[in-house]
Amino acid sequence: MTGETRPAFGLFLYFGLIFLLGMYFTFAAVQGEYGLFRRAVVQSDNVQLRHQLAELEERIVVMENRTRRLSDDYLDLDLLDQQARDVLGLVRGDEFVLR
Questions:
Q1: Can you give the pLDDT at residue 79?
Q2: Are 38 and 32 in contact (CB under 8 A)?
Q3: Domains of the chain, residue spans
Q4: pTM of this prediction exceeds 0.70
Q5: Which 8-state DSSP code applies to residue 87?
Q6: What is the model's pLDDT at position 55?
Q7: What InterPro entries does the record tag this protein with (predicted)?
């Protein structure tokens, strides 16, 4: 026999399996459900939803202000007149309406 040794197949299989597992976990960390790309999408959605929340909170403040101004405790006659004209279509007797 000669002194040639062949590479151990088990060692090659072991390192191949370790490499494949590493590639799988790397792919999952980047592309997976909780990966980096998904995180970027979630952060983008978060920014958009916070902007939408700020707009809705601003609308709530405006609505609360109008509601308070039309309440019995604090009646704004100008706002009441405007709402009667817009919603009910009321006009005074000395006014002309052009359509």
A1: 83
A2: yes
A3: 34-89
A4: no
A5: I
A6: 98
A7: FtsL/DivIC
